[in-house]
Amino acid sequence: MMAQVALSNTVSPVASAATIPSTYLTRSSLKMSSLSLKCPARICHAFGIKPGRGRITAMAAYKVKLVTPEGEFSIDCPEDVYVLDAAEEAGLDLPFSCRAGACSSCAGKVLEGSVDQSGGSFLDDEQMDSGFVLTCVAYPTSDLVIETHAEDKIA
What is the mean pLDDT of each run of 10 residues along the chain (155 residues)? Predict the structure, then answer.
């Protein structure tokens, strides 16, 4: 028995299909090209897409304004990137120490917007309710304005 199989990654425009014996067809040879479903993390991140199980979904990216002692800076921060990491990628030098939410070196205060900082352990509920945030473990959940360098303001 012979089977017709389309070749998706052929170099020659003439050879678009091949006839091969069905005994050579295996489950792995029939899978879709991995290039059609997956993309390298850097490329996906650059285009704001999130690879999934055969699906590609768009990631939200939020505008984050950082109010620092040196001035105000606006950056784009994808929903799956910590605010501190996005700031560093944009060339900003913000304070940090542990990068695990276990200290207050990277503390800021959210003036507008919201974050998910469930990975942190240093701030108590009262401090978070007052707007304090640890930028090293904070994912944006909306557009934000954060006053940075707020370690001394935490009571």
Answer: 45 45 46 46 59 66 97 96 97 95 96 95 95 97 97 90
- pLDDT given at position 52: 57
At a CB cut-off of 8 Å and minimum separation 6, what does 153 contact?
107, 109, 132
Q: Tokens 């799956």 belong to which residue?
A: 80
How far is Cα 92 from Cα 108, in angstroms, rounded to an integer? 15
* C-alpha to C-alpha distance for 98 and 22, rounded to whole angstroms: 57
Residue 13 DSSP symbol: S
Q: Which residues pair with 150 in a beta bridge?
A: none
Cα 121–chain centre separation: 21
Count the Cβ atoms, other than its own, within 10 Å of residue 69.
7
Output the pLDDT for position 1.
47
Dihedral of CA atoms 9, 14, 20, 26 in degrees, nearest 10, equals 10
Kindly state the DSSP code that residue 49 receives in the 8-state scheme: E
Query: CA nearest 83: which of 29, 153, 142, 25?
Result: 142
| Cα separation of the two ends of the chain | 77
pLDDT for the residue 51: 59
pTM more than 0.85 = no
